[in-house]
Amino acid sequence: MHTIHGKKFDLNLLLAFDALLRERNVSRAAEHLGLTQSAMSHALRRLREFYEDPLFVRIGDAMKPTPFAEEMGDSVLEIVSAVQHKLLAQASFDPMTSTRVFSLCMTDMGELVFLPRLIAELQKVAPHCRIRTSQLPSEHIVNSLERGDTDLAIGSHYIQNPNLFQQELFVHSFCTIISRAYPADELSLEEFLGMKHVSVVLSDSSSRYDQFIDELGHRREIYLTTPHFITVPMILEKNPSLIATVPSELGQTFLRYNAIKVIKTPINSPSLHLRQYWHPRYHHDPGNIWLRQLVKHLFDQYMS
């Protein structure tokens, strides 16, 4: 880092630097810290003056860190993490007064099935908190949790990392969905395998959600692969020759839109385990603890 030369430094500026490095956007960084945009701009100006470096340069809509800022990044993350999770480990979290923005990684399935319940509960018990969601490939989730960009990852992710904490929320099965225009309400195995299938794959490195069909040795035609659950019922509605096998809770949610009907999958499907994941760095963070407990409570209620 640059020599201080007797300059006075406000350690709060490290929080501003950390937020800017994460968000790459002045407005979102201000939102993350609960500051006004002008206050965040003022903090950035003070940082630039102190280090005699632009630190962040606007490119399009993003603020790209300079080489010096990137070099500082790991040191700042280490300092901020130490302050938040060692010195402030005993700090309390008051959901009624907190303005924290909780970041959740979940699929569009999670957003459709669970997010409305979480929002409704948060508005009652943490009225000033807000939520930001993201979808990430499985291979990027661990890094996002470690950096604090994501508070919790919720879903049926196949995250093979022994360093992450995880908690099972509930177990569900699969169902098959088909256009309401399809003339039958059940399918034989032969009919099922003879249809064209729509299959969801979240990223290039992920398995198909309905991979168990192939693993059991059944041959079928995958007509469409998509990373989005939410588009499937609209596609099936207009294409009665297509079929999809999805998590059962999602199938029940789709029924409300009257575009598809749910039928029994003519194959014994395995259980799908829904979990929440978090990083050890944030295991003792009061806000993260509170959020984990709230999520678990809502899922317990959902299944009861």
UniProtKB/TrEMBL annotation:
It comes from Pseudomonas jessenii. Residues 9-66 form the HTH lysR-type domain. The keyword Mitochondrion does not apply. The keyword Membrane does not apply. Keywords: DNA-binding, Transcription, Transcription regulation. One of its GO terms (molecular function) is DNA-binding transcription factor activity. Belongs to the LysR transcriptional regulatory family. SUPFAM superfamilies: Periplasmic binding protein-like II (SSF53850), Winged helix' DNA-binding domain (SSF46785). It holds the Pfam family LysR_substrate. This is DNA-binding transcriptional regulator, LysR family.
